C-alpha cells in the first residue's frame, strides 16, 4: 500500500509532501510470476518513506500476522529495524533537523491498523506513539493493492480453467532464416560437387588429342633482352607486378614480337597511388643480352655475384612478373616437329619441398596435377618410377624429404627431387637457377650428370639452361655452351671448353695460365670488367647453326612488365604466314584462318592439366598425410582446449545467481572467447609456413589458388578450430553451470564455432597480406586487444564516449559475448541477491543491460553479423591469395 504522511509536527519541520510505502509478503512461493520482485521471507514487511520523491529511510519487519474484520485490518509484527539514508532531508542534510539517531533506533514490535472505508492507516511503534500519541504516525489517502496468481482468483470465484492441449513451440523468424541460409549453402555445395564430378568424369574419359607431338624438339632464343628496375617499390605494401594491363603487340616484318612497356614509349607509367618516380634514376640490371640454346644443348650462365645471372634465368623462365621492374627484348622458342604448348620446367636455387611426404609421394603429387587428367593412374605411377630411376633416387624413394625441424634427404638428393618434380610431367626446356650451389663436389657432379642425361636423351632431347655460381673444372666441361656476364652485360656467348679463352685472348684479355681452371679464369675476367661483346654475340666464337632457321618455327612470348608466368601461359599465339602475334584475352570469339597454327592456350582452353575436383582431392590427400605424420599442432590444440576448459570451469565452477555470480558467468564466456581468439594465431603461422611452397607450386601451374584454399580451410578449420572449440565448450559450459537446456547449449556452440571461423579467416587475411610474418602476428595481437576492450566486459558499451563508441562495431568478440549472454539470459535466469540488506529478485536481463549494455533480443542479429564477418573476411582472403600470394624473386 502507499499512503500520504500528513502530520502537523512533521510538516512544521518538513513542509513538502511525504509518502510511506509498505509491502507485506504473505508467501513468496505464491508469487504470480518469477519476474515479480519479492522481499524477504513469509510474514515479512518492508516500508520506505519518501520526502519530495526522495527516499529518506526504510524499515524491515518480521513475524507479521494479519487480523481482519469487516472494515478494519490490523498487522502485528514482532520485530522492526529501520535505517536512515545518509545525506537526505530527514537524515543529516540539515543539522537542526537531523533525525538519524531517532530513526535508526526504531525497533521492537510494530503495528499497522487500516480502515478501508476512510483509507486511513496508523503506523504504531513505541517511540512514535510516545512522540505522536497513542495513534502513532497517522497515514492518509492510502491506496491498497495485492499481487496474486490467476489461479487464486479463479479458485476464489469458482472458475474452472479450460484445459488446452499443449502445442509444439513455433520457430522464430531468426531460426527460420538461419535454417534457410544453411539449406542454401548445403544445396549449393552439393550442386558444385555434382558438377565437379561430371567435369572430372568427362576429362578422364577423353584423351587429349592436342598434346605436343612425341619427339618434338624445342630450343630457346633471346635477343636484346634488357631489364630495368626503379629504387622504389620494394617497400610498398602492395606489389607493382600484376597491376598493369597487357596490350596487344603488333608484329614487325622480322617475325619477332617486340616487348614493350605499358605505354609503348619506353617509359613506365607510375601507379596512381604511388608518387612519380620521374626524378629517381633507374638501374639497368641487364643490358642487351642475346643468345640461343638448341634442343640437346646445355648452357651455363657464368658471372660473379651481381652479374645478373638469376635475373636472366627468371626472364627466360617466364618469371619476370615475379621480379617487378621492366623487361624489354625478344624471348621465344624454336619448335621443330609438331605444335602445341611448350613445356618449360624451372628449378629455383632454393629447394622448397613438402617435408612430410616421401620422394615417391611428392613426385606422384606432381604427376597427378601436371599430367593430363585422362592419363591412367598406372601410367602416372610408371612415369614417377621412371623419373626416380633416371635421377638416381631409388634408394630414397620411400624416405621423407624432411625440413628445418626434421632431418631427411641430403642437399644433393633434395636438388634432384626438385629437378624430378619439374620433369615428371615431361619438359622440353629445363631452366635452373644455380642448381649446384651449396652442394659438395660429388653431389654437384651427380646433378650435372643428371642434367647431361636429360639434355642428350636421343629420343627427347631437352634444352638445359643453368646459372652456375662457381663451377669446378669437371662441372664446367659438362656444358656445351657458355654465357659469361659482367655487371649485366654480355662478355661472351658461344661454345664451351677452351673456346672462350681463345676468343677473349684475341680481344686483348690477359692470357690464362696453363692448367688453370677455365671457369675460374672466366669469372676473374668478368670481375675485372672485360669489355662486353658488341651486339651481344661473340662472332669469333659463333660456330653454331643460325638461330633463324626457316624450317624451325619460333614462338616468342610476352615478358611485358607485370605479366606473371601464369598470365603468359594463358596467351594465344598465332602464326600468319610465319609471323607470330600475341593477342589479349577477350570475350570476342576468334576464328581460325588459313595458314594459321595455334600454339599455347587461349581463353577457351583449360589452364590446369587436372580438373578442379581432382586438384582438391590431391591437395586434401597431402594435407591428410601431413596431419597424420605431424600431429603436434593438433594434439596441442586439443590439450590446450582441454586444460584451459577445465581451468575455466574450475575457476567459475557452478557460479551463483547473484549479481557478482552473473558477472562471473559472463566472465567465463569472455574467457572462452579470448582463448579462441589467441589460439587462432596458429592459423596465421601455418599459412606463413606453407606460403613459399604454395607460391612455387602456383607458379609451376600445379593447381588453382581456389583449390588450395578449399583444402587449406578444410584441414585447418576442422581439426584445429572446430574440434578444439567443441571440446572447450563441452567442458566449460557444464562445469560453470550455464543453462541446462540442450537448445541453449547448441545455440552457444553455434556462436563459438562462428567466432572461431571468423578469427581464423582474419588471421588468414593477415598472413596473406603481409610477407613479413612478424608484422602479421603483431597486428593480430593488437586486434585481439582491441576487440577485448570493446567486447563490453571491461567497459559498459553505452558508457563509452560517442566519439569512440562506434569502434565497438569492429569488435568481433563483442558479438560473441553479447550472443552468449543473451542466450543465457533468455532461459529465464533470475538474479537473487541482497543489496544493502534489501533482498533483490530481478530478471538477469535487467542486470545484463545495466552492467554490459547488451540488448536482450540481439542473439540472431549477432549470429548474422558473425556470419557476415565470415563472408567478408573469406572474400578478403580469396582476393589476397589471388593477388598477393604469388612468387616474388
Automatic annotation (TrEMBL):
Example of a GO cellular component annotation carried by this entry: membrane
Pfam family, one: ABC2_membrane
Record has Transmembrane helix as a keyword: yes
Membrane topology: Multi-pass membrane protein
UniProt-recorded Gene Ontology molecular function terms: ABC-type transporter activity; ATP binding; ATP hydrolysis activity
PROSITE patterns hit by this protein: ABC_TRANSPORTER_1 (PS00211), ABC_TRANSPORTER_2 (PS50893)
Domain ABC transporter positions: 257-512
Entry superkingdom: Eukaryota
UniProt keyword ATP-binding present: yes
Transmembrane segments: 175-198, 632-653, 665-688, 709-736, 748-767, 774-794, 835-854, 866-885
Subcellular location per the Swiss-Prot or TrEMBL entry: Membrane
Region of interest (Disordered), residue spans: 571-597
Swiss-Prot/TrEMBL keywords: ATP-binding, Membrane, Nucleotide-binding, Transmembrane, Transmembrane helix, Transport
Protein name, as recorded: ABC transporter domain-containing protein
Species annotation: Rhizoctonia solani
